[in-house]
Predict the 3D structure of the following.
Amino acid sequence: MPFSDLPERVAEVRGRIEAAAARGGHGQAVTLVAVTKTHGPDAVDAVVRAGVPDVGENRVQEALPKMDAVTVDARWHLIGHLQRNKVKALSRFVLLHSLDRSELADGVDGLGRAMGRTFDLLMQVNVSGEATKGGYGPAQWEAAADHLRGLTGLRVRGVMTMAPLDAHEAELRAVFAGARRAREVLRAAGHDAAMLSMGMSNDYEIAVEEGATCVRLGTVLFGARAHDR
Ligand SMILES: *Cc1c(COP(=O)(O)O)cnc(C)c1O
């Protein structure tokens, strides 16, 4: 049976998250989002049955057919770059982790107002400010927080970040602390921003020590992806 060892992997990961949260001393609860990109609907079925109802996908065009094919109730998170012409798909997700530019914010806001609802999302931040990386750099945080405050079709619930893959521990901690600072900027601007989505398979214990309220894990649950995107 595929993914038959998921219950053990989930238990192991949850144990590590709990221990890291205790070491970090931030006192936060941590949501585990299972990242199922490149895996089939069977991976979603298996992980939800293993007690993880939150699943993450990074591409709308991959997620939508998977949603229709699964046999379980999952809470779908969109964790990758979203094109403005695909914002309508947000109706199928509980949370957008990757609000990475104002143009997208305006698109989500317009959809929310047209539908008479709000969409929950996280501001993706690029703590190092590298131009090649997605998300708002530190110099943009305050202005973005103010701009987003004026949009009634969305609610900014916190911050998402991705650390560089090859970073050493000190660098990881600096990135995660930077995300905490971005969350403070949002709060100071009046957002109800409690969430910190940070930590992937190779760095989630450090992220939780640094206050992550949400980790996004693929490889450590499902094994290596055959063809990454
Ligand atoms: C793929 C992906 C993950 C999960 O990565 P792993 O290293 O396999 O845990 C987390 N977040 C985002 C945004 C991703 O695209």
About this structure: The two ends are 26 Å apart (CA to CA). Strands lie at 31-35, 54-57, 75-78, 95-99, 119-125, 154-161, 195-197, 214-217.
